[in-house]
Every structure is written in structure tokens, then in C-alpha cells.
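Question thread 4412

I'm putting together a teaching handout and wanted feedback from people who do this every day. The idea is simple: show students a protein as raw sequence, then show them the C-alpha cells that encode its fold, then repeat with a second protein so they can compare. Below is the first pair exactly as I plan to print it.
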Amino acid sequence: MPDSGGSRAQRAHIPTSGTGPGTDADLRTGPGADGDPTVPHGDAGALAVDPAAPQATAPAGLPEAPVLAAAPGRPGAPGLAGPAAKAARRTGLLVTLVLGGLTALPPLSMDMYLPALPAVTDSLSAPAATIQLTLTACLAGMALGQLVVGPMSDRWGRRKPLLLGMVVYVLATAICALAPTAELLIGFRLLQGLAGAAGIVIARAVVRDLYDGVEMARFFSTLMLISGVAPIIAPLIGGQVLRVTDWRGIFVVLTGVGIALTLVVWKWLHETLPPADRHTGGVADALRTMRGLLADRVFTGYMIAGGLAFAVLFAYISASPFVVQEIYGASPQTFSLLFGLNSIGLIAVGQINGKLLVGRFSLDKVLGFGLAVIVLAAVALLLMTTGVFGEAGLVPVAAGLFVLMSAMGLAMPNTNAQALMRTKHAAGSASALLGTSSFLIGAIASPLVGIAGEETAVPMAVVQVVCAVAAVACFLLLCRPWQRAGREAGGL
């Protein structure tokens, strides 16, 4: 476990990303810095590795020898001063937005399409069950694609596989817009998911390349803020697109988004994995790496705990439209409002996690608290839906769902951060395993919420309780946080 809450880029000579090669000025270390580059503590998101530049550099246009000053809020910590610090912050914000866009693209691809399902059924003269397979195909592609792209990024670096995935995503999405049959649409939705997985897995790997410890957990919370907005606005965007065109227009919009992200990645997201840290083996080496990761009990514990927490979320997403509208009689507008409020709760708690809790408390303590709240909320929902407290109305059930969803903001970023902190030299493969396990566990749990029909919310609550308790068990039995507490420092 790392013993510092700073970014990895601060402890290695990693250049900041400028606008092109040959435009960066040298950044010199200050007295007593022990050879560490004087990069602001909070601006490591602006960093990227340029193999051709062995020494640290500053963004294009900065003075060759910037004046050093203490980083804001960190007395004695060296940092860039004046225009240098402002430029680094701007670049860091840009990289944050790029990574957020990459992680938001898959939810956009899934959720923008939801309002169009009835129209697709009519347009292609296919049964509803067949058109539902277009969603299943995209989800399966996102799960399996991560297993392919993750090892590729460990071998060839982050940029090339990401750019390849984005180009394939654009082409597959454009063909979806032109698909004349349901079968062809299913096939290219699968390809769209496979290619879109590159954004998910490589965004996490880039975060691991640049950050350690507290800073990594904070960055994941920031990504949650950006990517968490996508499921809220995606159906709204899809509905507005359908007002001016047919369902094919949704894929035209997604094609445009894919093109824009591809251009932004090509111009501003530089390579973050140095050649010295890349794996040179083939498929067999990738499989050995993944087997080694799975043999790490602690990594596997965080991976499964995170996947089970994600299954609780999937159970909510799958069942809540029927629970809120069919069982409790809410209107679609009320459901949309409650769904939005729950998403805001998740995002807000994620920001509290990153801005206030991380760094003051150990990640394991915050994670354990989040999992405990999820268990309590799920048990409360089970008691309400089974009638233990009498006939519960919509308000208490909605309150329980809000608490459960909000606690995800403590569980999800911290399971990712703790797992990836153990995978310094295989971040791509580790990110692939984290993403694939979450999608697969969620996909298995999701259909179970409707096993007793649409007239009861008990299956949803049962699935949530079982998955939440299992997540706590994995965290305690496999991760064993108390064994590492004495060895951790700096709030980790």
C-alpha cells in the first residue's frame, strides 16, 4: 500500500500535458525537494507521460524556470506560482473532463436509447423481446470489451487502444443509425458496446497511472460527479431528439458525441504509461496477469465487494420504474423526479467523499461506513415492502431508496481506489476485471427483481439485502482492513 496521499506523478518525473511535442519548458525542482518535480499537489490530473522527455516539464507557454511557492492550503508544500499554477489547473480540469466524458459515454449509449424502444419495435417490425436484445448486446459488449481493451492498454499504452476503440465506436454507432433489420442492429450494438468499453477501462487505468491513495479516491469521486449526470440527462436528451426526428436520430447524435470525444482524446489526452512499465507478452501473458490479480485476496475482495454494491444499484434501476409507478401509483413525472433526486444524492455524497472524508479518514473506514448504510437501507426497504410496519406508502419507500443510492457515493469510488492501489504495473488489466465483474454481477442480479412479477417490491429488496450483506462479507473476510490499518499512513 502506498504511504502517501499525493499523486504518483509527484513522485516520478512525469511531464504535464501541453498542446503538442516540443512545446514544453523545463520545470526545475526546488531546494530540498529530493529530486521530486515541483508539481502542485492538486493538479496531477494535468499530467501525462512523454517517453521522449525524461525530465519534468511545464505546460506550453509557461516560463522556463517558474517561481516556486507553497501550494494553497498546504504550508511548505512546493508548487507552481502565479500563471504556472493557473495553467496547470486549467489543463488538469481539461483532463478531468475528458476522462469524465469517456466514462459517461457508455451510460449515454444505453439510456438515450430507452425512450425509443417502442419506436424501434414498430420501425423494424420486430417483437419487443428481440428489440430488448439490442440493450443486452450493448451491455454484454461493455462487459466483455473491458477484458480485451484492459490488457491491450497495458501492452501498447493507453492512447492507441483508446483511439482505436473510439474510432470503432463511431463507425458502429453510425451503422446502427442505418440498420435495416433488428438482427443487424443487435450485431452492431454489440460492437458498439465492445468499443465503448475502451473509454471505461482506460479512464480508470489513466487515473491509476497518475494518482495514488487519497488523490486517486478524490479523482474517482470527481469522475462520479461527471459520469453520474449522464444517466439523469440521457433519457431526457433521447426524448427531445425523438420530438424532431425518429429513433435513428439518437444514433446520429451519439455518433457526433463519439467524433467529438475522439478528437479531444487525440489532441489533449497524452500517453500516461511509460514504455518501461508496459507488458510485452501476448494473450498468455495477459491471462497470467489477470490470474495473478485474482490470486491477490485483497484485490479480489474489493473487486467482488464493488461488484455486489453495483448489483444493488442495478436492482434499483431495473425495478424502480415498476415499484414507484405500478405498485405505489406514482406518475411518470413523479418517478422521473425521484430518480433524479436519488442520482443527485449519489453524486452529492460522492463529492462529500472526495472533498471532505478522504484524507481525514482511512478509505477502508469510509468504505465500511458506506456499505453499512447500504445494508441498513436495504433491510429497511425489505421490512417496508413485506408489510412489517404495516402498509408503507411511497414517501418512506422513496426515502429508503434515497439513502441507499446516496451511500453508493461512499462505496463505489473507494472500492475502485483501494483495488487499483494494489495494481501499479497492471492497471489496465485490473481496471478490466473491475468493470467486467461489476457489469456481470449486475446483469445477473438485475432480472431477479422481477421474478415474482410486477405487483410486489419484495424481490427488489431481497436482492438488495443479499447483495449488500455479501459485499460486507467480502470486505471483511477477504480485504481484512484491520490487518493493514497499522501499516497505513497519511490517512490511508
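The second pair follows. I'd like the answer to focus on this one:
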Amino acid sequence: MTTDVAKPPSPAVEPVRVQRSMISRVLGRPEVGALVAAVAIFVFFFVIAEPFRTTAALATVLYQSSTIGIVAVGVALLMIGGEFDLSTGVAVTTTALASSMISYQLSLNAWVGVVLSLAVSLGIGFVNGYLRMRTGIPSFLVTLSTFFVLAGLNLGVTKLITGTVATSNPSELDGFASAKAVFASEIPLGFMTVNISVLWWLVFTLVATWILLRTRTGNWIFAVGGNADSARAVGVPVRATKIGLFMGVGFTTWFFGQHQLFQLSVVQSGTGVGNEFIYIIAAVVGGCLLTGGYGSAIGSALGAFIFGMTTQGIVYAGWDPNWFRAFLGAMLLLAVLVNLYVKNYASTRK
């Protein structure tokens, strides 16, 4: 007669967590390539262009960067979510025209136009997002259609109402001065004076970074950009998230449109065409992948800063500014290659 001795249960084997090295974690950040490029370009123009070394030049560079970076923040979040918006350039002009003409033609307080133009801009973003999710048509085609619609409306409606292709000057309206203080005032910092758009650009970048890295919404954005079907399977509201991202782009185009209005007082209805590519390039240079699911708001800010430095640096160096477009194309291609290399290298390195 034999008895079986019960063996004690074997302890559960815990999965081994692979500890990534510091270099791997740093290289895994989307904005690393843009940061290196920004430092290199800054040093380059600092050495060869004497006017570039002044605080006045730095203020100009920051302002130029903010005019790209404000919208690029919203575009970056949208691209991380896996979508594009080709209507941003003309949408900026649409919101500025709407704000100016509503207030001026109806003799209203300037803030009425500001608020109603926000509704217009958010409505454009909602329509883009709704059509994208409802029809399944790629956002490239949906927003390209919106681009042509808005470009035609900007010219046609402005000509119909004002008789010209530009708005009337609303600077005498009530509320114009206070709105200008919010959207386009100058702030003395002691050692230099910067436009308030620079501060708003930094605020938007920080808020977007917080959303991406510290909130559930940020997790949703990365999830829908990486794989929308998988995200939907685990309960992520894909439709609401993507529509919200399009409306977020609408908010940034509205804000920059108001800056243009209160900075210049008069808006030309044909402006903005082509700027949508600059916003996208700034986001891509900053580390956003065209396939979605990867990128950062800080990277888009660095991409905009690179644009600002290059735009002004070429002028300060006395070069022919016609070469700027060639630089944009080369920089876009190089940024895509570097970002893919760094991402693949970081993912394989321990």
C-alpha cells in the first residue's frame, strides 16, 4: 500500500520586467530629434548671422514661431489620433473674417464677433470630424473638400458684403481694445518685449502635453491613433475622441485667427492658403508619425521654433529667402527619416 505525498504548489513565476536603459528611454521620446535639430540650427545662425544674436531678434523669432505653433499644437494632437486636417490654413482666415464682419457690419461689440466666430470654428471642426466618422472617407479627402469650400466662401462672402476682398477696419468698435489686449498685445519682459501670442503658444503646448500624458483622454488619443478597432474593442469612445480632436484644431485656428484680426485690424480674404502644410510639417518635424499613435505637443512646439529660426535666420544672414521652400521640403523628408530611425532604434535597444 502506497500513499501519495501531496507536493506543495510551485510558486507562480512572475514575468520578468525588462528595465530599459536611460538612453533608450530618452531616444524613445518623440521630440528628441526636433530638440537636436533646434539646437543645431540655433547655434548655426548664432554663429553666422550677427543680428541673430540680439534679444530683439529672439523676440521676432519667438513671435514667428508662435504664429505656426499655436495651430500646430492642435494639428499634432489630431495627427497622434491618426487624422489630418488640410483646411486649417483657410479656416484661420474664415474665423478672422467672421469675427470682423459680424461685429463691424452689425455695429456690435467686438467681443460678440469673437464669440460667434468661435462657434463657427468649432462647427467646422465638428463637421469635419462627423463626416470622417460617419462616412468613413479618409480625413485627407474630407478636409481637402472643406479647404476648397472655405477658400471660396472667404472670397465670395467678403466680396459680397464689403465690395472688396478685405474686411473693413473694426478698430473703432467697442471692445476692440480689450480684445486686442487678450489676443495681440505686447508684453515687456525687461530684457525684451514679446507678443502675447508667444505666451499663449507656450500655455497651449503645456495644456496639450498635460492632456496627452496625464489624462484618460490622452490615453484615448494615442489608442485611436495606434489602432482604432482595438481601441473600440476595449471601450474607447473612438468617434467622440476623433470629433473632439477636429474641434480642438478648430479652437486653435479660431485663436490664431483672432490674433491676426486684432494684430492687423484688416483681414485679406485670400490669405492662409498653403499654411496648412506648414502646420503639418511642424508637427512631423516635432516627432508625429504620419501613421498616427505617436508624437508630442512639445515636439510640435520645437518644430514651430525651427521654422521661426529658419525664417528669420535666412533674413538675418542676408540669404535669398526664395530658398526657404526648398529647405522646408528637405527638412520634412529628413525629419521623417530621423524620427523613424530613432523610434525603431529605441524600440530595439534595451
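Top answer:
Good format. For the second protein you could add a caption like this: The longest strand covers residues 186-188. The chain has a mean pLDDT of 89.
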